[in-house]
Structure formats: C-alpha cells, structure tokens
Amino acid sequence: MGVGGEQRPSPASTAAGLPGDGHVVIVGASLAGLHGAEALREQGFAGQITLVGEEPHPPYDRPPLSKRVLAGRMSADDTGLPQREDFEAQWRLGTAAVSLDRAAKTVTLADGDVLGFDKLLIATGARARPWPQAHEAALDGVFSIRTRDDARALQARLATRPRRVLVIGAGFVGSEAASVCRELGLDVTVVERSPAPLVGALGGPAGSAAGRLQRRHGVDLRTNTSVRSLEGDGVGRLRRAALSDGDILDVDVAVVALGAVRNVEWLAGSALSVDGRGVRCDAYCRAVDSAGQPDDDVLVAGDIARWPHPLFDGELLAVEHWDNAVRQARVAAVTMLHGPVLRHTALPAFWSNQFGVNIKSVGVPARADQFAVVQGSVENSAFVAAYGQQGRLIGALAVNMPRALDAYATMITNRAGFPPVARIPDAPDPIRVLDTALPPLGKAAPDAGRPRPDEQRAGARPSL
Fold first, then answer.
1. In the structure, what pLDDT confidence band is assigned to residue 243 with cuts at 50, 70 and 90?
2. Residues 312 and 221 in one domain
3. Which of 10, 56, 162, 335 would bridge 252 by S-S if both were Cys, CB 3.0 to 4.6 A apart?
4. Could you tell me if 375 and 399 are in contact, meaning their C-beta atoms sit under 8 angstroms apart?
5. How far apart are CA 264 and CA 142, in angstroms?
6. Residues 138, 248: one domain?
7. In whole angstroms, what is the distance from residue 390 CA to residue 27 CA?
8. Strands (E), 145-272
9. Residue 428 confidence (pLDDT)
10. What is the pLDDT of residues 297-327, one digit of tens each?
C-alpha cells in the first residue's frame, strides 16, 4: 500500500518523467521537505536531491517546542527528526531561497548560488507573525515560538522565574505556552481579541469551554481585549503592557502568539498563484500558475500549500498540522515520479495538550455552523463533540478520548449527516445541537476581565 492507505502507483507509470539521474531541489528543510525527500528514495529515485533550508539546523520537530521544551522536560537540541540510515542528499542549510525562475528551472539562493532542477518541491512553510511595532518587538523580554532557537531562548527566560508572563494570542501555541507557565508556577495573563480562546479553530462553545479551563488553572484571561503597546525601561527591557481595556500590566516576558505568515515572498515573479494565504496547488500537489494551470515540475507541500479537498466541495484548504505536511509531501513525491496518479485526500487532523487535557480534532471544525456533544461527558472532561455544516458532519473534537476519533473520521469521509447517528452507550440523550457562534457548554463563565477568586486555583480539577 502507498500513501494514506491508497495503492502505490506502478513503477511503469512515468507520466511526469523524472529522469532516474535527475535533480530534485526541495526548498524547505523541515518536516515536509524531509519526508518528501525520503519518499523519493523509498520509491527508488536514485538521482540527486538538494534540500535548501533558511535555518542552520537539520530538520526538527516543532510540536514539542511549545510544550516539553518550554517546560524544560526536553532539550531543544533533542527535537531532531529521525532520518533513514541510507538517506543521501545534499544539504544547503542556513541559506534561504530568494527567487524562482520556472522557465529556466532554477532557484537562486541568498548567497548567489543558482540551483538547476528537474523537479522542485516548495515546502518553505511559515514563520511566526511578528509584533507589528518593530521597536517594541526588539525589547529584551519579547519572544515568539516557532523555531528551535525561539523555544530555547524562551525556556531559558522562563527558568529565571519572571514576575508575570504576558501571552498575546490564545490560539493553540499561545494556549500551550500559558499552560506551561502555569505548570511552572508562573503568573500569566493571556490577551485575546476574540470572545474566547481557540474560537477561530473550534467555534464558540468549545472556545468558551477552553476559556473556563484556563481560568480554573489560574490564568488571567482577557478576551475581547488587545494589547495596545509594549513598553520598556531605560535600557531596553520589557516592563509594561498597555491593554485596550485600560489596564497597564507589569510584565517581564511577552510571548507573541499571533499566528503564522506563509513564506511566499521568494516566489514573487514566478507567475504562480501565490498570496498571503500560501501557494495554490491541485490535488496532486502540483503548483498552479496564475492562469490556473498546474505545473508538472513544481510541487507544493506543508503549511504553505492550499489545495482543493474533495470532501469540502473543492474549497482550498491550508492546514498547518504535522500529519498533513507528511502526507502531502509523500503525495508530491509520487507525482514527481509517476505523474498525477494519487490525490491528496487525507483529512486534516491535529492534537494539543494543555492544562492537563488532551485535545484532538479531525476534519474542519472551523467551517462548521453547528456543534453538539455526541459522546461522553463535559462535566467529566472526557467527551467527543461533532461539528456540522448545512446538515453534514465535517469535523469532530475529542477531549481526553483520542481513540474515539477514528470512527468519526470514517463518518466524515462517508459524508454522514449531522448530528451523526451512532449506537454509543455514553451518548447524551437527547443530543443538544448548538450554533457554533453561541457560547456555552453548561454554565457560562465571564468572557472578560480577571478570573473570579474561585477560578484562581492552579490545582483545580481540569474540567470543560
């Protein structure tokens, strides 16, 4: 079997015609780039592979950075991704690609070198969105979490026991950082412009539940609030943050967790279909040009890719998750070797650990208009929630029940209706369907301001 359980193409299928002694250039030496290169070797490609990476480090795993590395349970140096013993490639690390000439089939690097290619894989991913005011971002004490070096620097600063940490943004990275701070016994304030944490990814009800979870663990969560400015002392060290609610916070550390920016600037002038959301590609991972035509010689994979998923009416998806990067890179390798014979149809999936809770999701909950708990108990912090769009199941979220998710993934693939009908002993009766824009699973907690005194207990039982 081949990628994602589908049958591997026959070696006789050579529609795209990558020469056996050809040269594949992979721009982006991280998860997608490494797996794309390894998939080429696994399928018998014996030609030259060159991996180009802006960072000086060999490929490493990013998910542990905002979890175990920040908590000091794992060294940043131990996050390297394993490689096949027989893997052979040329590495150009610490050097960014600055331009692509599709007609000449060349990539120009920042050091002036020009690499010719037979096939190109674009896997440049994304970078942390910076704090918009450069002079404030330069203050000692302002950090992002995206790279190994980011995590190493922030972990070292947290180990000095700062008085208060400010986390700007309550998405997954920000929420995980806040969780680590509370685990370390540090005071932390989380500021989020939306009505609840994670609401953009998981909708209102689950986001409200995540907010209650944070407050029960002693997080000073400020929703519907933004940071107006970061202020330093006379020698350039962060000391204060001004919030839109009028508060001035004394903080020693600020973690900027405002999402990601796709690394697409180097593709300007390539005539590919590129914008701030990423690089458009087809289901075979072939880059699409500005006229809407796929380029057989330029492939795309990972966080930078936008592709049409057949389960979602061909709407372009951009997925910044580990599993998608691996699967997409391996489909791209098949396309390089055999042409457009294998589609990328894997369901988006992600996981997170925060505040003692395991969160796992499949599908596209962010696009749902309805939400329902369909298994387990919110009160016991172990449940599955289903997400529907126009009467169809499109996503599922498991909290402390990761093994239950496979069945829902199958239902999503089979285009099951919403709410899903399943014979499950622990299903609520009746199932309550909510609009994703509404708050509340159970009794609502305040969505803004400081946590109530009874929510300050760091050791409170995790509960959604």
1. very high
2. no
3. 162
4. no
5. 25
6. yes
7. 40
8. 164-168, 187-191, 220-222, 227-232, 238-243, 248-250, 253-256, 260-262
9. 75
10. 999 999 999 999 888 877 888 888 888 999 9
| Domain endpoint, select from 308, 338, 368 | 338
- Sign of the Cα pseudo-torsion (415, 417, 423, 429, in order): positive
Claim to verify: residue 430 and residue 358 sit in the same structural domain: yes
Do residues 342 and 283 make contact, with C-beta atoms less than 8 angstroms apart? no
How many Cα atoms occupy the beta-carbon half-sphere of 83 within 13 Å? 19
Count up the domains in the chain and report the number.
3
Classify residue 2 by burial, with Cβ atoms within 10 Å: 0-12, 13-18, 19+. Answer: middle
* 445 class by beta-carbon count within 10 Å (0-12 exposed, 13-18 middle, 19+ buried): buried
Give me the domain span that covers residue 75: 3-127+261-338
Q: Which two tokens mark 180?
A: 């680590």
Task: Give me the percent of the chain exceeding a pLDDT of 70.
Answer: 90
368-418 pLDDT tens trace: 999 999 998 887 788 999 999 999 999 999 999 988 899 999 999 999 999
Are 81 and 7 contained in the same domain? yes
Beta carbons within 8 Å of 202's beta carbon, 6+ residues apart:
210, 361, 365, 366, 397
130-160 pLDDT, tens digit each: 999 999 999 999 999 999 999 999 999 999 9
CATH number at residue 63: 3.50.50.60
Q: Which of 344, 354, 424, 353 is nearest to 386 (CA)?
A: 424
189 and 168 within one domain: yes
Which of 276, 306, 338 represents a domain boundary (last residue)?
Answer: 338
Do 400 and 412 reside in the same domain of the chain? yes
86 token code pair: 């027989």
Q: How far apart are CA 380 and CA 282, in angstroms?
A: 43
**Residue recorded with tokens 């060159």:** 50
Q: Average pLDDT, stretch 208-222?
A: 95
Is 448 among the domain residues?
no
Instruction: Determine contact, residues 312/297, Cβ cutoff 8 Å.
Output: no
User: Is residue 332 a contact partner of residue 36, using CB atoms and an 8 Å limit?
Assistant: yes
113 and 95 together in one domain: yes
Amino acid present at 379: E
Q: Answer whether residue 113 is part of any domain.
A: yes
Report the predicted TM-score, pTM, of the whole model to 2 decimal places: 0.88
442 occurs within a structural domain? no
pLDDT digits (tens, 9 = 90+) for 323-335: 899 999 999 999 9
